[in-house]
Amino acid sequence: MPRINDLIRDGEPNQQVIAQGWVRTKRESKGITFLELNDGSCLSSLQVVVQNDRYEESLLKQITTGASLRVNGVLVASLGKGQRIEMQAQAIEVFGTADPETYPLQKKRHSFEFLREIAHLRSRTNTFGAVFRVRNACSYAIHKFFQERGFIWVHTPIITNSDCEGAGEMFAVTGLDLPKLATSGKAIDYSQDFFGKPTFLTVSGQLEAEVMATAFTNVYTFAPTFRAENSNTSRHLAEFWMIEPEMAFCDLEGNADLAEEFLKYIFNYVLEHCSEDMAFFQQRISDRVMPNAEKIIKEKFERITYTEAVNILINSNQAFEFPVQWGLDLQSEHERYLAETHFQKPVIVMDYPAGIKAFYMRLDDTSNPDRQTVRAMDILAPGIGEIIGGSQREERLEVLEAKIRAIGQNPEDYWWYLDLRRYGTVPHSGFGLGFERLVQFITGMANIRDVIPFPRSPLNADF
Prior knowledge:
Layout: H1 4-10, E1 16-29, E2 32-38, E3 46-51, H2 57-62, E4 68-77, E5 85-96, H3 112-117, H4 126-148, E6 152-153, E7 159-160, E8 172-173, H5 178-184, E9 199-201, H6 206-216, E10 218-226, E11 239-248, H7 252-273, H8 275-284, H9 289-298, E12 302-305, H10 306-314, H11 332-342, E13 347-353, E14 373-381, E15 385-392, H12 397-406, H13 415-422, E16 428-434, H14 435-443
Parallel strand pairs: 3-5, 6-10, 12-13
Antiparallel strand pairs: 1-2, 1-4, 2-3, 4-5, 7-9, 8-9, 10-11, 11-16, 13-14, 14-15, 15-16
Helix pairs in contact: 4-7, 4-8, 4-14, 7-9
Protein backbone atom coordinates (compact mmCIF):
# COMPACT_ATOMS: atom_id res chain seq x y z
CA MET A 1 0.00 0.00 0.00
CA PRO A 2 1.47 3.40 -0.94
CA ARG A 3 2.42 5.85 1.80
CA ILE A 4 1.06 9.38 1.79
CA ASN A 5 4.44 10.60 0.57
CA ASP A 6 4.01 8.39 -2.52
CA LEU A 7 0.48 9.65 -3.15
CA ILE A 8 1.49 13.31 -2.89
CA ARG A 9 4.54 12.82 -5.09
CA ASP A 10 3.35 10.31 -7.68
CA GLY A 11 -0.45 10.18 -7.44
CA GLU A 12 -2.47 11.11 -10.51
CA PRO A 13 -6.02 12.50 -10.84
CA ASN A 14 -8.75 9.84 -11.13
CA GLN A 15 -6.51 7.28 -9.41
CA GLN A 16 -8.33 5.01 -6.94
CA VAL A 17 -6.29 4.78 -3.74
CA ILE A 18 -6.32 3.90 -0.05
CA ALA A 19 -4.74 6.23 2.50
CA GLN A 20 -4.07 5.48 6.16
CA GLY A 21 -2.84 7.79 8.89
CA TRP A 22 -3.68 10.12 11.73
CA VAL A 23 -5.82 13.24 11.49
CA ARG A 24 -3.70 16.35 11.95
CA THR A 25 -6.53 18.87 11.52
CA LYS A 26 -10.24 18.88 10.79
CA ARG A 27 -12.38 21.78 9.56
CA GLU A 28 -15.96 21.94 8.29
CA SER A 29 -17.56 24.23 5.73
CA LYS A 30 -21.03 24.05 4.14
CA GLY A 31 -21.59 20.33 4.56
CA ILE A 32 -18.01 19.40 3.68
CA THR A 33 -15.29 18.24 6.09
CA PHE A 34 -11.65 18.78 5.21
CA LEU A 35 -9.15 16.46 6.87
CA GLU A 36 -5.37 16.65 6.89
CA LEU A 37 -4.17 13.04 7.01
CA ASN A 38 -0.54 12.23 7.83
CA ASP A 39 1.24 8.89 8.21
CA GLY A 40 4.71 10.20 9.07
CA SER A 41 6.21 9.49 5.65
CA CYS A 42 6.60 13.20 4.85
CA LEU A 43 6.03 16.66 6.26
CA SER A 44 3.02 17.36 4.05
CA SER A 45 -0.38 15.91 4.80
CA LEU A 46 -2.91 14.62 2.30
CA GLN A 47 -6.08 16.67 2.20
CA VAL A 48 -9.13 14.41 2.33
CA VAL A 49 -12.45 15.93 1.30
CA VAL A 50 -15.49 14.35 2.96
CA GLN A 51 -19.07 14.95 1.78
CA ASN A 52 -20.88 14.91 5.13
CA ASP A 53 -24.23 13.68 3.79
CA ARG A 54 -22.64 10.41 2.65
CA TYR A 55 -21.76 9.34 6.20
CA GLU A 56 -23.51 8.73 9.50
CA GLU A 57 -23.19 11.62 11.94
CA SER A 58 -21.90 9.20 14.58
CA LEU A 59 -18.93 8.32 12.33
CA LEU A 60 -18.13 11.95 11.57
CA LYS A 61 -18.07 12.75 15.30
CA GLN A 62 -15.41 10.09 15.82
CA ILE A 63 -13.09 11.84 13.37
CA THR A 64 -11.18 14.36 15.45
CA THR A 65 -7.56 15.53 15.62
CA GLY A 66 -5.42 12.51 16.56
CA ALA A 67 -7.85 9.86 15.33
CA SER A 68 -6.50 7.13 13.05
CA LEU A 69 -8.28 6.34 9.79
CA ARG A 70 -8.31 4.30 6.63
CA VAL A 71 -9.85 6.16 3.71
CA ASN A 72 -10.79 4.70 0.33
CA GLY A 73 -11.22 7.28 -2.37
CA VAL A 74 -10.10 8.87 -5.57
CA LEU A 75 -7.39 11.45 -6.17
CA VAL A 76 -8.39 14.69 -7.86
CA ALA A 77 -6.54 17.82 -8.89
CA SER A 78 -6.62 20.26 -5.99
CA LEU A 79 -7.78 23.83 -6.21
CA GLY A 80 -6.15 24.55 -2.85
CA LYS A 81 -2.99 26.58 -2.63
CA GLY A 82 0.28 24.69 -2.23
CA GLN A 83 -1.00 21.21 -3.05
CA ARG A 84 -1.14 19.35 -6.33
CA ILE A 85 -3.77 16.77 -5.47
CA GLU A 86 -6.32 15.92 -2.83
CA MET A 87 -8.50 12.93 -2.10
CA GLN A 88 -12.26 12.63 -2.40
CA ALA A 89 -13.34 10.15 0.30
CA GLN A 90 -15.62 7.29 -0.70
CA ALA A 91 -15.37 5.09 2.41
CA ILE A 92 -13.92 5.79 5.86
CA GLU A 93 -12.94 3.39 8.62
CA VAL A 94 -11.98 4.74 12.05
CA PHE A 95 -9.36 2.61 13.77
CA GLY A 96 -8.88 4.67 16.92
CA THR A 97 -10.53 7.77 18.29
CA ALA A 98 -8.87 10.62 20.22
CA ASP A 99 -10.89 12.51 22.82
CA PRO A 100 -10.60 16.20 21.83
CA GLU A 101 -10.97 17.21 25.49
CA THR A 102 -7.82 15.35 26.57
CA TYR A 103 -5.72 14.87 23.42
CA PRO A 104 -2.76 17.21 24.07
CA LEU A 105 -1.76 17.96 20.45
CA GLN A 106 -3.92 20.60 18.84
CA LYS A 107 -3.51 22.93 15.86
CA LYS A 108 -1.17 25.38 17.54
CA ARG A 109 2.50 25.67 18.36
CA HIS A 110 3.54 23.79 21.46
CA SER A 111 6.76 24.55 23.31
CA PHE A 112 9.54 21.98 23.06
CA GLU A 113 9.61 21.84 26.87
CA PHE A 114 5.97 20.79 26.91
CA LEU A 115 6.49 18.26 24.13
CA ARG A 116 9.32 16.58 26.08
CA GLU A 117 6.73 15.83 28.76
CA ILE A 118 4.69 13.91 26.18
CA ALA A 119 7.54 12.31 24.25
CA HIS A 120 5.27 9.37 23.37
CA LEU A 121 3.15 11.75 21.24
CA ARG A 122 5.55 14.45 20.09
CA SER A 123 6.66 12.48 17.00
CA ARG A 124 3.24 13.30 15.52
CA THR A 125 4.06 17.01 15.31
CA ASN A 126 5.56 18.63 12.23
CA THR A 127 8.85 19.50 13.91
CA PHE A 128 9.57 16.12 15.43
CA GLY A 129 8.34 14.25 12.40
CA ALA A 130 10.91 16.19 10.39
CA VAL A 131 13.64 15.66 13.01
CA PHE A 132 13.24 11.91 13.07
CA ARG A 133 13.00 11.57 9.30
CA VAL A 134 16.31 13.43 9.04
CA ARG A 135 17.73 11.24 11.82
CA ASN A 136 16.71 8.18 9.82
CA ALA A 137 18.30 9.58 6.65
CA CYS A 138 21.53 10.30 8.54
CA SER A 139 21.60 6.73 9.86
CA TYR A 140 21.19 5.28 6.41
CA ALA A 141 23.78 7.61 4.89
CA ILE A 142 26.33 6.67 7.56
CA HIS A 143 26.02 2.96 6.84
CA LYS A 144 25.98 3.61 3.10
CA PHE A 145 29.15 5.71 3.28
CA PHE A 146 31.17 3.09 5.12
CA GLN A 147 29.77 0.06 3.31
CA GLU A 148 30.56 1.61 -0.07
CA ARG A 149 34.17 1.96 1.07
CA GLY A 150 34.60 -1.60 2.27
CA PHE A 151 34.33 -0.96 6.01
CA ILE A 152 33.06 -3.73 8.29
CA TRP A 153 30.33 -2.79 10.79
CA VAL A 154 31.32 -4.25 14.16
CA HIS A 155 29.19 -4.57 17.28
CA THR A 156 31.23 -3.54 20.29
CA PRO A 157 30.16 -4.39 23.86
CA ILE A 158 27.81 -2.20 25.86
CA ILE A 159 29.05 -3.70 29.16
CA THR A 160 32.73 -3.05 29.84
CA ASN A 161 35.31 -2.72 32.59
CA SER A 162 37.42 -0.20 30.63
CA ASP A 163 37.07 3.58 30.92
CA CYS A 164 38.15 4.55 27.42
CA GLU A 165 37.80 8.29 27.99
CA GLY A 166 39.35 8.30 31.47
CA ALA A 167 36.58 10.56 32.75
CA GLY A 168 35.26 8.15 35.37
CA GLU A 169 31.64 9.21 34.72
CA MET A 170 30.26 5.75 34.01
CA PHE A 171 27.07 3.94 34.95
CA ALA A 172 27.78 0.86 37.05
CA VAL A 173 26.31 -2.50 36.04
CA THR A 174 25.64 -5.02 38.81
CA GLY A 175 23.66 -8.12 39.60
CA LEU A 176 24.09 -7.66 43.35
CA ASP A 177 21.13 -7.08 45.67
CA LEU A 178 21.64 -3.36 46.26
CA PRO A 179 18.89 -2.88 48.91
CA LYS A 180 20.35 -5.79 50.87
CA LEU A 181 23.87 -4.36 50.57
CA ALA A 182 22.66 -0.95 51.72
CA THR A 183 21.30 -2.35 54.98
CA SER A 184 24.19 -4.74 55.63
CA GLY A 185 26.83 -2.05 56.09
CA LYS A 186 29.41 -4.33 54.46
CA ALA A 187 31.86 -3.38 51.73
CA ILE A 188 30.93 -4.51 48.22
CA ASP A 189 32.52 -7.85 47.32
CA TYR A 190 32.71 -7.64 43.53
CA SER A 191 33.91 -11.24 43.33
CA GLN A 192 30.30 -12.18 44.11
CA ASP A 193 28.93 -9.99 41.32
CA PHE A 194 27.82 -11.32 37.95
CA PHE A 195 31.11 -10.62 36.18
CA GLY A 196 33.32 -10.98 39.25
CA LYS A 197 34.63 -7.42 38.94
CA PRO A 198 33.28 -3.84 38.64
CA THR A 199 31.63 -3.31 35.25
CA PHE A 200 30.00 -0.35 33.57
CA LEU A 201 27.99 0.85 30.58
CA THR A 202 30.42 1.85 27.85
CA VAL A 203 31.36 5.43 27.03
CA SER A 204 33.00 4.38 23.75
CA GLY A 205 33.54 1.35 21.53
CA GLN A 206 36.90 2.63 20.34
CA LEU A 207 39.21 0.20 22.12
CA GLU A 208 37.28 -2.80 20.81
CA ALA A 209 37.11 -1.21 17.35
CA GLU A 210 40.91 -1.10 17.39
CA VAL A 211 40.87 -4.87 18.00
CA MET A 212 38.74 -5.44 14.93
CA ALA A 213 40.71 -2.99 12.77
CA THR A 214 43.86 -5.06 13.33
CA ALA A 215 42.06 -7.95 11.63
CA PHE A 216 39.81 -6.26 9.03
CA THR A 217 41.77 -3.03 8.36
CA ASN A 218 38.74 -0.70 8.15
CA VAL A 219 35.83 -1.01 10.59
CA TYR A 220 33.19 1.20 12.17
CA THR A 221 30.82 1.11 15.12
CA PHE A 222 27.37 2.66 15.35
CA ALA A 223 26.01 1.98 18.81
CA PRO A 224 24.62 3.45 22.02
CA THR A 225 27.03 4.88 24.59
CA PHE A 226 26.45 6.22 28.09
CA ARG A 227 27.83 8.99 30.29
CA ALA A 228 26.87 9.46 33.95
CA GLU A 229 27.52 13.19 33.85
CA ASN A 230 25.13 15.07 36.11
CA SER A 231 24.43 17.81 33.59
CA ASN A 232 21.13 19.37 32.61
CA THR A 233 22.44 21.53 29.77
CA SER A 234 21.09 21.54 26.23
CA ARG A 235 24.30 19.79 25.07
CA HIS A 236 24.30 16.66 27.23
CA LEU A 237 22.54 13.29 27.26
CA ALA A 238 23.11 10.30 29.52
CA GLU A 239 22.41 7.90 26.64
CA PHE A 240 23.43 8.72 23.10
CA TRP A 241 24.72 7.09 19.91
CA MET A 242 28.26 7.20 18.56
CA ILE A 243 29.81 6.48 15.18
CA GLU A 244 33.45 5.42 15.51
CA PRO A 245 35.45 4.32 12.46
CA GLU A 246 38.89 2.80 12.99
CA MET A 247 41.43 2.40 10.17
CA ALA A 248 44.67 0.39 10.17
CA PHE A 249 47.60 1.70 8.11
CA CYS A 250 46.22 5.22 8.49
CA ASP A 251 47.84 8.37 9.94
CA LEU A 252 46.21 11.54 11.25
CA GLU A 253 46.09 13.23 7.85
CA GLY A 254 44.27 10.25 6.34
CA ASN A 255 41.93 10.27 9.31
CA ALA A 256 41.11 13.94 8.72
CA ASP A 257 40.55 13.31 5.00
CA LEU A 258 38.02 10.59 5.74
CA ALA A 259 36.21 12.66 8.38
CA GLU A 260 35.80 15.60 5.99
CA GLU A 261 34.56 13.35 3.19
CA PHE A 262 32.21 11.66 5.65
CA LEU A 263 30.47 14.87 6.74
CA LYS A 264 30.10 16.11 3.17
CA TYR A 265 28.53 12.80 2.14
CA ILE A 266 25.94 12.84 4.95
CA PHE A 267 24.90 16.43 4.33
CA ASN A 268 24.59 15.79 0.59
CA TYR A 269 22.43 12.73 1.23
CA VAL A 270 20.11 14.54 3.63
CA LEU A 271 19.65 17.54 1.32
CA GLU A 272 18.81 15.20 -1.55
CA HIS A 273 16.39 12.95 0.34
CA CYS A 274 14.88 15.30 2.97
CA SER A 275 14.57 18.55 1.03
CA GLU A 276 11.06 19.32 2.34
CA ASP A 277 12.10 18.76 5.95
CA MET A 278 15.27 20.83 5.53
CA ALA A 279 13.24 23.71 4.07
CA PHE A 280 11.00 23.48 7.13
CA PHE A 281 14.00 23.76 9.48
CA GLN A 282 15.35 26.71 7.52
CA GLN A 283 12.01 28.51 7.78
CA ARG A 284 10.85 27.54 11.27
CA ILE A 285 13.91 26.60 13.36
CA SER A 286 17.01 28.49 12.17
CA ASP A 287 17.84 30.54 9.11
CA ARG A 288 21.41 29.17 9.35
CA VAL A 289 20.42 25.57 8.54
CA MET A 290 20.93 25.78 4.78
CA PRO A 291 23.95 28.13 4.85
CA ASN A 292 25.69 25.82 7.32
CA ALA A 293 24.89 22.81 5.15
CA GLU A 294 26.27 24.59 2.08
CA LYS A 295 29.50 25.39 3.94
CA ILE A 296 29.96 21.75 4.92
CA ILE A 297 29.34 20.53 1.38
CA LYS A 298 31.14 23.15 -0.71
CA GLU A 299 33.95 24.53 1.44
CA LYS A 300 37.29 22.79 1.82
CA PHE A 301 37.83 22.48 5.56
CA GLU A 302 40.57 24.72 6.97
CA ARG A 303 43.39 22.85 8.73
CA ILE A 304 45.42 24.45 11.52
CA THR A 305 47.38 23.28 14.54
CA TYR A 306 46.23 23.81 18.10
CA THR A 307 49.14 26.23 18.56
CA GLU A 308 47.99 28.27 15.57
CA ALA A 309 44.43 28.25 16.94
CA VAL A 310 45.59 29.58 20.31
CA ASN A 311 47.55 32.36 18.61
CA ILE A 312 44.52 33.35 16.51
CA LEU A 313 42.34 33.51 19.62
CA ILE A 314 44.87 35.51 21.63
CA ASN A 315 45.28 38.01 18.79
CA SER A 316 41.54 38.31 18.16
CA ASN A 317 40.99 40.90 20.91
CA GLN A 318 37.76 39.11 21.79
CA ALA A 319 36.49 39.18 25.38
CA PHE A 320 36.12 35.43 25.92
CA GLU A 321 34.54 34.12 29.10
CA PHE A 322 37.18 31.40 29.43
CA PRO A 323 40.91 32.15 29.26
CA VAL A 324 42.96 31.30 26.18
CA GLN A 325 46.34 29.83 26.99
CA TRP A 326 48.53 27.15 25.46
CA GLY A 327 47.88 23.92 27.36
CA LEU A 328 44.22 24.64 28.15
CA ASP A 329 41.43 22.94 26.27
CA LEU A 330 39.46 25.02 23.79
CA GLN A 331 35.97 25.90 24.99
CA SER A 332 32.84 26.07 22.86
CA GLU A 333 33.11 29.86 22.52
CA HIS A 334 36.67 29.49 21.19
CA GLU A 335 35.70 26.75 18.76
CA ARG A 336 32.76 28.73 17.40
CA TYR A 337 34.84 31.89 17.00
CA LEU A 338 37.32 29.98 14.85
CA ALA A 339 34.63 28.35 12.67
CA GLU A 340 32.04 31.12 12.52
CA THR A 341 33.98 34.37 12.72
CA HIS A 342 37.62 33.87 11.80
CA PHE A 343 37.46 31.25 9.03
CA GLN A 344 33.68 31.25 8.44
CA LYS A 345 33.79 27.57 7.48
CA PRO A 346 34.61 24.20 9.08
CA VAL A 347 38.03 23.97 10.71
CA ILE A 348 40.16 20.94 11.60
CA VAL A 349 42.38 21.68 14.58
CA MET A 350 45.28 19.23 14.93
CA ASP A 351 48.14 18.38 17.32
CA TYR A 352 46.77 19.13 20.78
CA PRO A 353 48.78 19.27 24.03
CA ALA A 354 49.37 15.77 25.40
CA GLY A 355 48.17 16.82 28.84
CA ILE A 356 44.56 17.45 27.80
CA LYS A 357 44.04 14.41 25.60
CA ALA A 358 43.45 10.69 26.21
CA PHE A 359 46.21 8.16 26.93
CA TYR A 360 45.77 6.26 23.66
CA MET A 361 46.66 9.19 21.38
CA ARG A 362 50.04 9.02 19.66
CA LEU A 363 52.79 11.23 21.02
CA ASP A 364 54.24 13.47 18.32
CA ASP A 365 57.97 12.79 18.18
CA THR A 366 58.60 16.10 16.43
CA SER A 367 56.89 18.31 19.03
CA ASN A 368 58.69 20.68 21.37
CA PRO A 369 59.69 18.77 24.58
CA ASP A 370 58.32 21.70 26.62
CA ARG A 371 55.09 21.70 24.63
CA GLN A 372 54.57 18.03 23.88
CA THR A 373 51.64 17.30 21.59
CA VAL A 374 49.69 14.28 20.44
CA ARG A 375 48.38 13.49 16.98
CA ALA A 376 44.80 14.47 17.74
CA MET A 377 42.21 16.39 15.75
CA ASP A 378 38.86 18.08 16.30
CA ILE A 379 36.52 19.24 13.54
CA LEU A 380 34.82 22.52 14.42
CA ALA A 381 31.68 23.52 12.54
CA PRO A 382 29.84 26.86 12.32
CA GLY A 383 26.86 26.98 14.64
CA ILE A 384 27.84 24.14 16.94
CA GLY A 385 31.59 23.97 17.55
CA GLU A 386 33.24 20.57 17.89
CA ILE A 387 31.40 17.86 15.98
CA ILE A 388 34.12 15.23 15.44
CA GLY A 389 37.07 14.27 17.62
CA GLY A 390 39.75 11.79 16.63
CA SER A 391 43.39 10.86 16.69
CA GLN A 392 46.15 8.66 15.45
CA ARG A 393 46.50 5.93 18.08
CA GLU A 394 49.71 5.14 19.95
CA GLU A 395 51.00 1.95 18.29
CA ARG A 396 54.28 1.69 20.26
CA LEU A 397 54.07 -0.72 23.19
CA GLU A 398 56.59 0.93 25.51
CA VAL A 399 55.19 4.42 24.97
CA LEU A 400 51.61 3.27 25.56
CA GLU A 401 52.53 1.41 28.74
CA ALA A 402 54.23 4.52 30.09
CA LYS A 403 51.18 6.67 29.27
CA ILE A 404 48.85 4.25 31.07
CA ARG A 405 51.04 4.38 34.18
CA ALA A 406 51.17 8.17 33.96
CA ILE A 407 47.39 8.41 34.40
CA GLY A 408 47.50 6.14 37.45
CA GLN A 409 46.24 3.00 35.71
CA ASN A 410 47.72 -0.49 35.76
CA PRO A 411 48.89 -1.66 32.32
CA GLU A 412 47.88 -5.21 33.28
CA ASP A 413 44.24 -4.09 33.23
CA TYR A 414 44.74 -3.30 29.52
CA TRP A 415 46.61 -6.51 28.71
CA TRP A 416 44.45 -7.33 25.70
CA TYR A 417 44.71 -3.77 24.37
CA LEU A 418 48.50 -3.88 24.75
CA ASP A 419 48.58 -7.24 22.96
CA LEU A 420 47.60 -5.36 19.80
CA ARG A 421 50.97 -3.62 20.09
CA ARG A 422 52.81 -6.88 20.81
CA TYR A 423 51.48 -8.85 17.86
CA GLY A 424 51.58 -7.13 14.48
CA THR A 425 51.25 -3.54 15.63
CA VAL A 426 50.39 -1.06 12.93
CA PRO A 427 49.84 2.71 12.62
CA HIS A 428 46.11 3.27 12.93
CA SER A 429 43.65 6.12 13.42
CA GLY A 430 40.01 6.78 14.07
CA PHE A 431 37.45 9.34 15.12
CA GLY A 432 34.16 9.64 16.95
CA LEU A 433 31.02 11.46 15.90
CA GLY A 434 28.20 11.96 18.39
CA PHE A 435 25.14 11.10 16.34
CA GLU A 436 22.77 13.43 18.17
CA ARG A 437 25.24 16.30 17.77
CA LEU A 438 25.20 15.62 14.04
CA VAL A 439 21.40 15.62 13.83
CA GLN A 440 21.29 18.75 15.98
CA PHE A 441 23.71 20.51 13.65
CA ILE A 442 21.87 19.49 10.47
CA THR A 443 18.41 20.45 11.74
CA GLY A 444 19.34 23.55 13.74
CA MET A 445 17.54 22.26 16.84
CA ALA A 446 18.84 24.08 19.92
CA ASN A 447 18.47 21.29 22.49
CA ILE A 448 20.05 17.88 22.03
CA ARG A 449 17.11 16.28 23.86
CA ASP A 450 14.94 17.18 20.90
CA VAL A 451 16.84 15.09 18.33
CA ILE A 452 16.55 11.70 20.07
CA PRO A 453 13.15 10.02 20.45
CA PHE A 454 13.43 9.26 24.16
CA PRO A 455 16.04 11.46 25.89
CA ARG A 456 17.79 10.21 29.01
CA SER A 457 19.11 12.88 31.37
CA PRO A 458 19.39 13.42 35.14
CA LEU A 459 16.09 12.50 36.85
CA ASN A 460 14.54 11.69 33.47
CA ALA A 461 14.12 8.10 32.28
CA ASP A 462 10.46 8.19 31.30
CA PHE A 463 8.94 6.57 28.23
